[in-house]
Amino acid sequence: PPCYTDGVGAVARGKKGISGQKTEVQYLKPGERSGHDIAVTVDVDAGVAIEDVGCTSHVIDKTFATPENMRVKLSSLDSIPNKDFVLRYKVAGKKVKSALVTHRDKRGGFFSLMLYPPENLSYLKRAPMEMIFVLDCSGSMSGKPIAKAKEAIKRGLKKLGKDDTFQVIRFSNNASQFGPNPVPATGANIRKAIRYVDNLHGSGGTMMIEGIKAALDFAHDPGRFRLVSFMTDGYIGNEVEILAAVHKRLGASRIFSFGVGSSVNRYLLDRMAKLGKGAVAYIGLDDSSGQIVDLFYERISHPALTDINIDWGNMQVTDVYPNRVRDLFVGRPVILTGRFKGQSKTTIRVSGKVGDLTQEIAIPVNLDDSASTHSGIACVWARKRIEILANQAAYDNNPDLPGQIKQVALEYSLMSAYTAFIAVDSSRQTTGDHGVTVAVPVPVPDGVRYDTTVQN
């Protein structure tokens, strides 16, 4: 997606940067077409029965091999590469579901353990919250994206309870807020906040660091669970600085990222949520903001399983990620990936609390059946290791981290901050000994206004 770098301005249409090199891609003007279309095929092995499938971003064709396995293809009628491909599938039922997928090759054994929450836990009591809404009001959010974000915030304000408090913060070139401190969620305060949100609009740059400081630096009420909801497209160029600020200032807060738009900075939003011990959700331009906010409140209000502990039995596991198991919320599965040794039958036991009660889930495992049918599990583990190392690099000056990331990326043929894929067109023709570099324009993301985001 287009990115804003502090002190530079909006995205250029192929202008040269400070160093003299072309640092920005060229963007097609409205009405122009590149002619480069895409094809997407996704094979899904959920481990448990898939109950529902949907794609609000594109038209898809789907087929099922078994209740747990399906193949999804992008329809030939929907192949312009100007927005994210978003596939959603549902496996939730009335109770916690679990699945273990394994793979073994010459590098050793790999596994993924998945815990799926129930679809409804509204009968559980919710604790008081301190809700902080943070809205990106930069130029790239102008139009449909900021309208969607404002809808989501207003829906969230109306769902607050009498024991909750809230704050609304906006940022672009700078940050400002609804009030000096969080206020009680009374009817009068909520109506004032809705009027405040209605008057916000998108313009200027994206100084997200100011929004981070404003949201995380003021005193926390220990009697309430603080949740910080960022509504943004994430179009910035200083992700490392943002992630370092989240790590430094987080405290007892939990960050929930909402990516708003058709082509958002998922790298930034995913890592903000993970560093912030929260979760991420995406609001497409054709999605229902109200439905997504309702699911968000249901998710945070009623944990499906807390204080999770795992007894691996006779399974010899190492390098399990994430390092700390998060709570299991509605709509947010817990997925662990790691390495294992040995061949035996055992039982993995997952225990935790549902309200005041302790629950245990037993998962039978036969490691002798670790055939090569799930070869992608090795890359899933490697991606997670790269992610953990990259998160650490955001706040740790350890000089060995880049080398460790590069080593994993090269061994498993993955893209990282230090490795890249090189595409070679076998049919290209050039004169002389060297090729000619050609800047290929790409579409502006669907729903993003060209006039407020791209400089000619």
How would you describe this protein?
- With 456 residues, the chain is an alpha+beta fold.
- The chain has 3 domains: 37-91; 97-121 and 304-411, Immunoglobulin-like (Sandwich); 129-301, von Willebrand factor, type A domain (Rossmann fold).
- It is built from 9 helices and 22 strands.
- It has helices at residues 144-158, 187-198, 208-216, 239-249, 266-275, 289-301, 376-393, 401-411, 450-453, and strands at residues 11-12, 41-45, 52-54, 60-66, 69-74, 88-90, 97-105, 108-116, 129-136, 165-171, 175-177, 183-184, 225-232, 254-260, 279-283, 303-311, 316-321, 328-329, 334-341, 345-354, 357-366, 454-455.
- Helix 1 (144-158) packs antiparallel against helix 2 and helix 4 (239-249) packs parallel to helix 5.
- The longest helix has 18 residues, at 376-393.
- It is globular, with a radius of gyration of 23 Å.
In short:
This protein is α+β, with helices and mostly antiparallel strands and 456 residues long.
Annotation keywords:
single chain, about 450 residues, alpha+beta, Immunoglobulin-like
Helix-strand layout with pairing:
Blueprint (H helix, E strand, L loop, with lengths): L10 E2 L28 E5 L6 E3 L5 E7 L2 E6 L13 E3 L6 E9 L2 E9 L12 E8 L7 H15 L6 E7 L3 E3 L5 E2 L2 H12 L9 H9 L8 E8 L6 H11 L4 E7 L5 H10 L3 E5 L5 H13 L1 E9 L4 E6 L6 E2 L4 E8 L3 E10 L2 E10 L9 H18 L7 H11 L38 H4 E2 L1
Parallel strand pairs: 1-22, 9-10, 9-13, 13-14, 14-15
Antiparallel strand pairs: 2-5, 3-6, 4-5, 7-8, 8-19, 10-11, 10-12, 16-18, 16-20, 17-19, 20-21
